[in-house]
Design brief:
The protein is mostly helical. It has 3 helices and no strands.
Amino acid sequence: MAAVITAPKSWVASVGRLSLPKKSASRLQLLMDRNNDGLLTPAERRELTALVEWSENVSIIRAQALQLLGRQPA
């Protein structure tokens, strides 16, 4: 049985607006570009993997909040 947690609608809405910080999003794009060009170092590959995982988790959490609000992701 799933637990039910109540939260103010404004809090859920703020979760629905989550995104990566601009600096992290820029770094992710740079690393993806370097990856496409075959130029990643092993350390950059680990960083890219971590940033992709973080981005995916933020997207999932955001989508779940929007689903609770009955909205579609933009």
